[in-house]
Each structure stands twice: as structure tokens, then as C-alpha cells.
Amino acid sequence: MIPTLDDLIEQMQSVSGAPEIDADTPLTQLSDVDSMDLMEWLYGYQSANPDSGVDADVFANEDGSLTLRIVHERLSQRVAAGAVG
After folding, report:
1. Which of 38, 5, 33 has its CA nearest to residue 19?
2. Model's pTM, two decimal places?
């Protein structure tokens, strides 16, 4: 199951303790969210959805512009690709 963007934000706030997360702010600019928070969220997601095909690549951030909106789009694409393949 793919969380809605709002659910993803709430889940990330819960994991990181961040009081507020803007879906369009690059993750590198969110001082309350670090790579351990991302991996903790991913582990929880993979545990709840073991057949989703989602891995750490959803957090690939080559140019520093990765946002939760982009992560959500990647999740949707990976899960859809897994359902087809």
C-alpha cells in the first residue's frame, strides 16, 4: 500500500520528531530529518509491505533537490512497477 503524501509526511514527522515538514522542501534543508530517520521509515515501510519492491533508491539524492513529494512519486512508481512485473 502506498501512503498518501500527507500520510508520508506524518510518518516522517513521527520518525524524525520534526514538528513540521513541507513536502516541497529539499530533505537536505530539513534540519530535523537525517539519513537515519529516512532508513527507519524505510525499514518500517518494507516490514509492512515486504512485496513492494521499494528500497533505499527512493531516497537517491544526487543533486540535493530530493523532497518528500519526489519520494512519494518514486514510491508510487516502484509499487506500480512491482504490481505489473
Report:
1. 33
2. 0.90
